[in-house]
């Protein structure tokens, strides 16, 4: 009999690859009747502000429920997962951590310390790609502790058929060819590079006159850079062809209107949104910084000329919203994953 699965993480909003994956994983486990409990480690008050009191309560509840069960951590905080894994071990729990993002070169001394603690007490590291597996090994994670399993899970019919806001529909109806891109949040990395490539999308829109861009980003972390991007759009005189949508939206609901999806990230672990677009029949162009879903059109990261050529090469595409996937394949993968750690 499979052990109870305790999923520790966060759900939308905000909408991002991590929260979407967690939401779909819970739905998948419910569908196949695997005993599971979700615990929110990013709780908010009615005002929308983070609740530290609720967080402490939920954190301790995670530890309690993990006793002789499986704790599956679904966030990107090494301090948090290290402490959770240590405490769970004290109550005979098994701990998995899905590594949605792994950039150890940016770790602070404190993060590096807790990463080293986590290495000892986490039972299984779920790497979304072979590249992440290799990187974990380079940082002394034991190879036998790592399972490669990409984080894409198929969207539900509710997600696919969610109503697109009127603001977006007006923009879509006034456009010839729609290119969609997304980001969890807008920010620059330690080298001042735009992680999600909004700058490249603006440049592409300016240099290809017959396309319009919808760039979905629910969180603006770097407001100074955001203002700079708005100024770029104004300077290029493409305000009527470039829309930055700063609200939560089901990305897959947009794909029925998209001609192309792009993900010009400077770093990535897999890119769930790329797999989503392909499953919906939308040509998907992405940087070559990691392994991508089968069928992805790759370009060299941060190479604007190659990025432009890939977009230009895409003709009008009418075979949209196929939603091609084998749900049974994903079900069996997660059953195998939890059965493996339960042994």
UniProtKB/TrEMBL annotation:
Keyword Transferase (UniProt): yes
Pfam families reported in the protein's UniProt record: Glycos_transf_1
Domain Glycosyl transferase family: 196-314
Membrane-spanning segments: none
Top-level taxon: Bacteria
Keywords from the named record: Transferase
One example GO MF annotation: glycosyltransferase activity
InterPro entries per the UniProt record, alphabetical: Glyco_trans_1 (IPR001296)
Protein name, entry field: Glycosyltransferase family 4 protein
